[in-house]
Amino acid sequence: MMKATWEKVFEYASSPLHGSLSRKLRKGVKIQINDGKTFESASLFLGEEFVRITETDAESAINSYYDWSKIESIRTYSSKETA
């Protein structure tokens, strides 16, 4: 299983939320798991057996859960830095 690798990818794409175990996607970064939905402005929770991604809008919070062992790919999107 590649859990340690996937944790590093999630950590690269996000930063810790003060006072919690959750992480917030860095500004300008989007993330996609297993070629599914692309998440933007989301919070991540990296549990022992699962990953939870929380999106919020004006009316609700939407939680998506992923089993570590079922994650086959993670794609990150960010703006290209210019020199």
Write up this protein.
The chain is mostly beta strands and 83 residues long. The protein has one domain (2-78). Helix content is 13%, strand content 42%. The protein has one helix and eight strands, in the order H-E-E-E-E-E-E-E-E. The N and C termini lie far apart (37 Å). The relative contact order is 0.24. The mean pLDDT is 93.
Give the SSE layout.
Layout (H helix, E strand, L loop, with lengths): L2 H11 E3 L6 E3 L4 E4 L4 E3 L2 E4 L3 E7 L4 E7 L6 E4 L6
Antiparallel strand pairs: 1-2, 2-5, 3-4, 3-8, 5-6, 6-7
Question: Any key phrases for this structure?
Answer:
five-stranded antiparallel beta sheet, single chain, three-stranded antiparallel beta sheet, mainly beta, globular, 42% strand, 83 residues
Mean pLDDT: 93
Biggest pleated-sheet summary: 5 strands, antiparallel
Structural domain count: 1
Low-confidence spans = none
Number of strands: 8
Estimate the helix proportion, in percent. 10-25%
